[in-house]
Amino acid sequence: MRPNKPHKEFKNKTQPLFKGEKDITSSSVATQKLHKLLARAGLGSRREMENLIAMGQVTINQKVAGIADRASSLDVVRIKKRIIHLNFGKELPRVLLYHKPEGEIVSHNDPRNRPSVFDNLPKIKTSKWVSIGRLDFNTSGLLIFTTDGSLANRLMHPRYEVEREYAVRIVGILSESQIKLLTTGIELEDGLAKFISLLDQGGMGSNHWYHVILKEGRNREIRRMFEAIGVTISRLIRVRFGVIKLPPRLRRGKSIELNKEEVEHILSNYPDN
After folding, report:
1. N- to C-terminal Cα separation, the chain
2. Among all residues, which ones are annotated catalytic?
3. How many CB atoms neighbour CB 65 within 10 A?
4. Statement: residue 8 has pLDDT above 90
């Protein structure tokens, strides 16, 4: 009677479901948070990507991903059946400056069918433009768009306290007591609001200009602050967002894309920690 041959070690011969996919088990490959990678790919904001993951629409190597999951350059990530090409920091995002005129909304969809800022932006195929903040319908000035949702999140999130500077035109001149209220704090329905800077820029006739700076972007915040002291704003223009200024030669309704050095300057000021 022949002795039994020792069993060969079991080998998993399961083949990938899709051609080109690999079963990655190595823990030595650097990983990054999945929702940040998807945002950086220009698919939306971090919050939108977290919602997409929570809905079970994202997979990593054929397995449904969780919100806390991480991915590496060796992983195959899909949204539904579409393979997503992730950016692990090698490619610079695109950044676009747009001079928004009054009478446009910062939204893709509007029940009233009003003109949208997105109608005037250059078309891109592999990702989408993510708006860094918003301006209301009657406010003009600097709008920033990027293909990197992670960068957009850093510039918009309250904890980063990115400065927003606006030119404000009113009828008449602010009194000392009104200036004090605006710079020390006014209680609005959604909390205390104040300017960290308010500078008189002069004016002609009954119109007077001021430049104000704040570190947040609540809905109609500046207009509501002036309304709280009995003053109506006749024009409101955003002239700066963080280190980015509204180019003086950029006409209303037009956009300009930043070059490599300009994008790197923005990234160096707002690193992805």
Report:
1. 68
2. 136
3. 24
4. no
| Residues in the chain, overall count | 273
**DSSP helix/strand/coil, 142:** strand
**Most distant pair of Cα atoms in the chain: their distance:** 114
* pLDDT surpasses 60 at 20: no
Q: pLDDT higher for 27 or 53?
A: 53
Residue range 31-83 forms a domain whose CATH class is alpha beta
Please check whether residue 40 is in contact with residue 87, taking contact to mean a CB–CB distance below 8 angstroms: yes
Average pLDDT estimate for 34-40: 84
Burial 142-151 (b: 16+ CB within 10 A, else e): bbbbbbbbbb
Find tokens 């893709």 and name the residue. Answer: 108
pLDDT at 2 over 90: no
Burial grade of 185 (CB within 10 A; 0-12, 13-18, 19 or more): middle
pLDDT, residue 254, reads: 97
| Topology annotation, domain 95-269 | Pseudouridine synthase (3.30.2350)
How confident is the prediction for the chain on average, in pLDDT?
A: 87
